[in-house]
Amino acid sequence: NVLVYSKNPHDPITAKVTDFGTSRSFIESSGKIELQNIGTPVYMAPEITRKDQMTLKSDVYSFAICMLEIWLGRDPYDPMKFPDSESILRFVGAGKRLHVSTDCILKGIIEKAWNHKPSDRPTFKELGTELEAIYKKTSDKSKSDSHNKNHSESTKTNTKSKDISSSEIKLTTNTTTNTVEDQGESIEASASSQMVDNN
C-alpha cells in the first residue's frame, strides 16, 4: 500500500509505503514468497497471476504501475477498456502493457520496471539511482528557468525606466525652450511698449 498526501496544494507530495499486516499472507523461504489468493489485479505482476513464486522483482513491477498512476493522476486502466479485474489480468498475462506518453519523464523507467520477464527488470537500487538522476535534472532545469525568468523581468524593468527617463529629458528640454521663447516675447513686448512711450 502506498499512502500519498500533501498538507496543501503548494507543498511537495509525500508518499509512504505501508503494510497493515493484512495485505499479504505469505510463507517466506530463500528470498521468495508463496502467495495464496492475494493481491490487487491492477498492480499484480504477471508471474503472480500464473501463481509462480514472487520475488522483489514482482514488487518492482507493482512500483512501475504506481509511478504511472502518480504521473497520470488517475487510475492507469481506463474502466471503459478494462471493465473488470479479469480483463486486466488477461491483458497483462498476454505480455501487453499500457501506452506511456513520450512526454512522461518516467517512461523509460516504467517500461523497464514492468518487463514481462522478472529477471529483466531493474532492482530497486537501480531504480533509485535513475530516479535521483531525473530529480536532479528537473530540479536544475527548474532553477535555470526561474533564473532566466527573473533576468528577463529585470531587463524589461530597466528598459522601461530608460524610456521614462528619455521622456522626462524630452519634456524638460521642451519646457526650457518654451520658457526661453516666452521670455523673448516678453522682451519684445516690453521694447515695443517703450518705443510707443518715447514717441
Descriptive keywords:
two-stranded antiparallel sheet, 199 residues, elongated, Transferase(Phosphotransferase), domain 1, transferase, mainly alpha, 2 domains, Prot_kinase_dom
List the topology elements:
Blueprint: E1 2-5, E2 14-17, E3 26-29, E4 32-35, H1 46-49, H2 56-72, H3 85-93, H4 107-113, H5 124-198
Antiparallel strand pairs: 1-2, 3-4
Biased composition (Polar residues): 189-199
Pfam families: PK_Tyr_Ser-Thr
Domain Protein kinase: 1-135
CA-atom Rg in angstroms = 37 Å
Number of H/I helices: 5
The helix/strand order is EEEEHHHHH
Report the principal-axis shape.
elongated
Strand order of the largest sheet: 1-2
CATH topology of the largest domain: Transferase(Phosphotransferase), domain 1
CATH class of the largest domain: Mainly Alpha
What is the number of strand segments?
4
In helices, the fraction of residues equals 55-70%
Q: Beta-sheet strand percentage?
A: 5-15%
Largest sheet: 2 strands, antiparallel
CATH architecture of the largest domain: Orthogonal Bundle
Structural class, from secondary structure content?
Answer: mainly alpha
- Ends distance: 113 Å
How many domain regions?
A: 2
Uncertain segments are 25-30, 171-184, 186-196
What would the average pLDDT be, to the nearest integer?
A: 75
Describe this structure in words.
- It comes from Entamoeba histolytica KU27.
- Keywords: Kinase, Transferase.
- This is Protein tyrosine kinase domain containing protein.
- The protein has 199 residues and is mainly alpha-helical.
- It has 2 domains: 2-126, Transferase(Phosphotransferase) domain 1 (Transferase(Phosphotransferase), domain 1, Orthogonal Bundle), CATH 1.10.510.10; 143-199.
- Helices cover 56% and strands 8% of the residues.
- It contains 5 helices and 4 strands, in the order ββββααααα.
- It has helices at 46-49, 56-72, 85-93, 107-113, 124-198, and strands at residues 2-5, 14-17, 26-29, 32-35.
- The strands form 2 sheets. Strands 1-2 form a two-stranded antiparallel sheet.
- Helix 2 (56-72) packs antiparallel against helix 4 (107-113).
- The chain starts with a strand and ends with a helix.
